[in-house]
TrEMBL record:
Keywords, sorted A to Z: Autocatalytic cleavage, DNA damage, DNA repair, Hydrolase, SOS response
Gene: umuD
Record flagged with keyword rRNA-binding: no
Family the entry assigns: Belongs to the peptidase S24 family.
UniProt keyword Lyase, yes or no: no
Domain Peptidase S24/S26A/S26B/S26C as annotated: residue spans: 18-133
Organism domain of life: Bacteria
Organism listed in the record: Alishewanella tabrizica
Pfam families in UniProt: Peptidase_S24
CDD domains recorded: S24_LexA-like
Protein name: Protein UmuD
Length: 143
């Protein structure tokens, strides 16, 4: 799985969208409420530290079983300290990837697709963590 870096997040142009606070049933339909509770800015919701956040586009399916799919857009925060179990964007020998970070018993990058192997980080590898994945943006409309 590789990533394409799309750019840094900017909060200078807020777009406020209507937010309906009533939950939408994923089972049986429920009566709709026709009033807007408030507005919601997706920048505020998804980006905690704009100076350290950037977007990447996913290429590949090594994380599909974790719900990260080819062509998804990820919001990545460089200001967060990556912890065991976080999904991270990392560079290994100058190639970017998205994997689950495993810190015990050694540093490993774990795919979420059984056709891919775990990457065990060796002392000879050039390894850098670029940030922690905080959100996924997916366009479900197929054109």
């Amino acid at each position: 799985m590789t990533v394409e870096i799309l750019g840094q997040v900017s909060l200078y142009n807020s777009i406020l969208l209507p937010f309906f606070s009533n939950k939408v049933s994923a089972g049986f339909p429920s009566p709709a409420q026709d009033h807007v509770e408030k507005t919601l800015d997706l920048n505020e919701l998804c980006v905690k530290n704009p100076a350290a956040a950037f977007f990447v586009k996913v290429s590949g399916d090594s994380m599909r079983d974790a719900g990260i799919y080819d062509k998804d857009i990820l919001i990545v925060d460089r200001s967060l300290t990556a912890k065991h179990g976080d999904f991270v964007v990392a560079s290994i020998n100058r190639e970017f990837t998205i994997k689950e970070l495993c810190l015990r018993p050694s540093i490993q990058l774990i795919p979420h697709n059984p056709t891919f192997e775990t990457i065990v980080i060796k002392d000879t590898d050039e390894f850098e963590l670029f940030g922690v994945v905080t959100n996924i943006v997916r366009n479900i409309i197929r054109t």
